[in-house]
Design a protein that fits this description.
Structural class of chain B: mainly alpha
Radius of gyration of chain A: 21 Å
Largest sheet of chain B: none
Order of helices and strands of chain B: HHHHHHHHHHHHHH
Oligomer: heterodimer
Helix content of chain B: 55-70%
Strand content of chain A: 15-25%
CATH topology of the largest domain in chain A: D-Maltodextrin-Binding Protein, domain 2
Structural class of chain A: alpha/beta
Number of strands of chain A: 13
Number of helices of chain A: 14
Distance between the termini of chain A: 43 Å
Largest sheet of chain A: 6 strands, mixed
Number of strands of chain B: 0
Helix content of chain A: 25-40%
CATH architecture of the largest domain in chain A: 3-Layer(aba) Sandwich
Shape of chain B: globular
Distance between the termini of chain B: 62 Å
CATH superfamily of the largest domain in chain A: Periplasmic binding protein-like II
Shape of chain A: globular
CATH architecture of one domain in chain B: Orthogonal Bundle
CATH superfamily of one domain in chain B: MetI-like
CATH class of the largest domain in chain A: Alpha Beta
Radius of gyration of chain B: 27 Å
Amino acid sequence: MKKASFIAIAATATVMATSATAGTLDDVKAKGFIQCGVTTGLAGFAAPDNDGKWQGFDVDFCRSMSAAIFGDPDKVKYTPTTAKERFTALQSGEIDVLARNTTWTLSRDVNLGFEFVGVNYYDGQGFMVRKSLGVKSALELDGARVCLQSGTTTELNLADYFTANGMKYDSVLFDTADEVREAYMQDTCDVYTTDQSGLYAQRSVIANPEEHIVLPEIISKEPLGPLVRHGDNQWGDIARWTLNAMIATEEHNITSANAADLLANTKNPGIQRILGKSGDLGEQLGLDKAFAYNIVTMVGNYGESFSKHLGEGTPLNIARGLNAQWNKGGILYSPPMR
Amino acid sequence: MAIVKTERHPDMPPPVSQTGVIGWMRENLFSTPLNIVLTVVSIYIAYSALSGLISYAFINANFAGETRDDCTGTGACWVFIKARFGQNMYGFYPVEDRWRVDVGYILGAIGLFMVLSDWFKNKKWAAIYMFAIYPIVCYFLFYGGTFGLTQVETSEWGGLFLTLVLASVSIFVALPLGIVLALGRRSEMPVVRLLCVGFIELIRGVPLITVLFMASVMLPLFLPEGVNFDKLVRALVGMSLFSAAYMAEVVRGGLQAIPKGQMEAANSLGLGYWKAMGLIILPQALKISIPSIVNTFIGLFKDTTLVLIIGLLDLLSVVKAGTTDKEWLGMATEGYVFVAAVFWVFCFGMSRYSIWLENKLHTGHKR
């Protein structure tokens, strides 16, 4: 708590000292690349591949911004950031945008002086158990031994949930996710709890993934999204509508494969507007009118990116769940692009 | 006629049970019942520990292949290390420019050989090469931007290369700075002494992780936006100052072990402070501090892994990042074993060199 307020004071001081730093877009165009903050490695979201190229769902957001601004998805430089220094890196201008599966909270949005541009992944804390246990719901976990990582909000959420439902549990704490997984594998505990995306990632690693299930209950809200600094609304708008363009193109069934065809032939005015054939949406943002077309052809729409890095067919095998489009049972919803 | 043998009977070899391997084993391993028991128990423990390790790391391990699917055995999947070897060694340094790092290694090896070995006699030129020319050459070689070399941002440096840069820069800065601080702490000039004591105690009083955090998290907030020191430079300054403070105390220990008479004798010969220090006191003090100095170096080398927390991808963290690649999930054990082996090689090398140096400089004063 003290630390948070200290950072806040320091941040405020910085913001006051350097207020109204407009023109991030001009700076980015002048230097020729976007400096994008990512994790130091999180399966599916951002990790270096064999050739040292960063790949992942969060990385695709950075590449989309690059496609929107430069018409080239590879004009991005990545700064690996840890959980602790990510905010300073953004505040100090070391990075232009932070796409580091960061939970959107009020104090981060307001007190730290950031602007979350949307949610690119709805996460939440869940539970994984062995199928042989026969448990179908988290409400049947009374008296269970729960393995979890120490020093995270996971611990607090777990305590809240079990107390609220009048259940008892024994928590078994470990320092890293790998240790938690090993302990769970060796039956030190019955239940493994962390964010659901993490559970899927860990399940993909263990010997017989099909013997374990992730329970349906989600006990906390973790809306993860990219963020930019306060004070430069144009830059914030570009980031926000880059994300929305990824979501909207999926909603309109525009994919990297059919975008060129749609641009030439479609009669649908909504699709024409998104792809820049009519209207001036791109110009309003200070970008090329084909910005969404560039995003979808060079990186792909939201669904393509999701299935490439997280979805079924990848080792993570995460179901769309909450992250499905609003008309397909999820809560993914882009405001209209018009 | 007495039968007297005039020539000497030839010496017989000692009984088989007292020489060679058998004799050694009888004497050292099976001399008493207690020793027999201890030997058998030790062999059992070593066997049960090593057999698992060897079958994991060699017998059942997978060496051939390109992807995770090639790892079918039950042991380690070294394919993971092989496939990402370049990344583990050089980080994100562009593949076509990695020869520059190799050239830097070779030049450094030549310099180290000239400075450290007995074969090269002219130590003055060796020192000038190693401490003045080599660092400048390395800067231009690694960072580039001039002489037709493309610029490689420090954010692209990583892996073992970054670990070595961090360790060697900190060591090169820490030793001279530590000696100066140690002399300053023993100085009779109050301002100098206070400054040195203050610096040493301040830095030694906080953990390295705090220094790194301060350098990477707090410092940028106090600077105006846009004014950014390179993250690597910040880490290097932090680590160098930190290790200099420790080095100062090590050297001070050596200085205090030199009898007062040495300084008095030097003064009576007409040597001034610096000459007496440089010719009489420091050579002796540094010699007796070698084990502690190398100890500090080894500690420092291993401490470089802490830069993970400020987002620099050194050897350990680049391997860790590799284990989160969705193509290579679950390779954490292989990664850690590999990193441990690399670190062991370097630290063991430093340790052997220090033992060799101690023996070389041994002048009969050892107690």
